[in-house]
Structure formats: structure tokens, C-alpha cells
Design a protein that fits this description.
The protein is of the alpha/beta class. It is about 40% helix and about 20% strand. The protein contains five helices and five strands. A five-stranded mixed sheet has the order 2-1-3-4-5. A hairpin with a 2-residue loop joins β1 and β2. α1 packs parallel to α5. About 35% of the residues are buried.
């Protein structure tokens, strides 16, 4: 999760909402990414989606069986769907997202046994650090708008 936070800080420094994601398989990091929606001008450029894309390319297939994703903020519906579709086995995330979270806060997509794949979920890992980074980002953003 520390590495996901470092990715989130890269986003912060670029003026992006600071969310970072890492995908591992065993002890190997197979993908690392951060939010790039503003830079890429692309609604799909969430940290999780970019990390899944990188992991698929590196591992040579769309099934990321045996992989774990670490992300600093609870995934949204789009990202939760991508996690299911890519067959990631485990998700570890930091902060809850009460406005868009699709894992615990608003929905429990990853635990829906009607779907063809379920994901083991661990939440709250380094949540204070992830939450503080997000709060500082939005505080800075509001300050810039006032000047």
C-alpha cells in the first residue's frame, strides 16, 4: 500500500485526484499507476483501469488470476467491474469512498455472489494516509479557485 500511496502522490503533483494503484502477483509488482483523467482527457483513466491494462499487457492475457490490487481509495462501479472482469483475486484498499464507492460504501459489487467472480477484500489499510492526501488535494484545489 505504501507504493500505491507513492503513485497517488505522483497524481497529486500533476494536479490529478491523488489515487494510486499497484498490482502484484506473488512477490512481483506487475503494474503501477495513478489517476490520469485530466492529463489524458479520458474518463476511463482511473488508476485501477490503467493498472489493470498494464498488468494484462505484462502478463500476456486478460485473466489476472492470482493477482492482488492495492489502491488508495475504494473503487468506483467502473473499476469494481474491471476488477471482476479481469479476475483479480484480492483487493486491498485504503479509504472508503462514501460518494462513489462500489465495494463497501454504496455497493458491494465484489461480493455479489450472482456474478461469476468474487474478490477477497481488505479495507482500511493506511486509510488515514490516503484520506489525508485526498483532503489536502481538495483543500488546495478550493484555495486555488478562491485566488
Amino acid at each position: 500500500m505504501q507504493l500505491a500511496l507513492l503513485e497517488a502522490k505522483k497524481a497529486y503533483d500533476l494536479g490529478e485526484v491523488p489515487i494510486g494503484a499497484i498490482i502484484t502477483k506473488g512477490d512481483e509488482i506487475v503494474a503501477a499507476s495513478y489517476n490520469r483523467r485530466e492529463i489524458d482527457k479520458n474518463a476511463l483513466a482511473h488508476a485501477e483501469i490503467l493498472a489493470i491494462d498494464e498488468a494484462c499487457r505484462k502478463l500476456g492475457g486478460w485473466r489476472l488470476v492470482g493477482c492482488t490490487m492495492y489502491v488508495t481509495l475504494e473503487p468506483c462501479l467502473m473499476c469494481a467491474g474491471a476488477i471482476i472482469n479481469s479476475r483479480i483475486g484480492r483487493l486491498v484498499y485504503g479509504s472508503f469512498d462514501p460518494k462513489a464507492g462500489a465495494v463497501s460504501s454504496l455497493y458491494n459489487v465484489l461480493g455479489d455472489n450472482r456474478l461469476n467472480h468474487q474478490v477477497d477484500v481488505v479495507h482500511g489499510v493506511l486509510s488515514n494516509e490516503a484520506s489525508l492526501l485526498l483532503k489536502q488535494f481538495f483543500r488546495d484545489l478550493r484555495t486555488k479557485k478562491q485566488t
